């Protein structure tokens, strides 16, 4: 049995869905744009729960990584992704 907040559940579901689509386990250590984006999303969730926020660099990185990951997902859906 797992106990987690709604935000934690959404993060886990997102990580699993992207992992299924791209064929990787994003819940564990790794060094891809998806891993980094998920780390920043997790950090943002923690910051929100502790009444703080990401710094400007982290916000900028999150925006850049969101675009990069969206491109990777689009390639995979369209059948152009890595095999």
Question: Keywords, please?
Answer:
83 residues, mainly alpha, 3 helices, 67% helix, 0% strand
Structure, explained:
The chain has helices spanning 6-22, 33-49, 56-77. The termini are far apart. It has one domain. Helix 1 runs antiparallel to helix 2 and helix 2 crosses helix 3. The chain has 83 residues and is mostly helical. The chain is built from 3 helices and no strands.
Which SSEs are present, and which pair or pack?
Elements: H1 6-22, H2 33-49, H3 56-77
Helix pairs in contact: 1-2, 2-3
| Low-confidence runs | none
Average pLDDT rating? 89
What is the number of independent domains? 1
Beta-strand residue percentage:
under 5%
Name the helix and strand elements from N-terminus to C-terminus, one letter apiece.
HHH
Number of helices: 3
Structural class: mainly alpha
Q: Give the N-terminus to C-terminus distance in angstroms.
A: 34 Å
State the total count of DSSP E strands: 0
Q: What about the largest sheet?
A: none
Radius of gyration, in Å, reads 14 Å
Short description:
This protein has 83 residues and is an all-alpha fold. It is built from 3 helices and no strands.
């Amino acid at each position: 049995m797992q106990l987690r907040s709604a935000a934690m559940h959404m993060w886990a579901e997102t990580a699993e869905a992207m992992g299924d689509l791209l064929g990787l386990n994003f819940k564990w250590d790794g060094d891809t744009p998806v891993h980094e984006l998920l780390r920043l999303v997790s950090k943002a969730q923690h910051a929100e729960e502790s009444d703080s926020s990401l710094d400007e660099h982290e916000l900028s990185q999150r925006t850049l990584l969101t675009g990069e990951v969206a491109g990777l997902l689009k390639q995979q859906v369209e059948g152009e992704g890595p095999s």
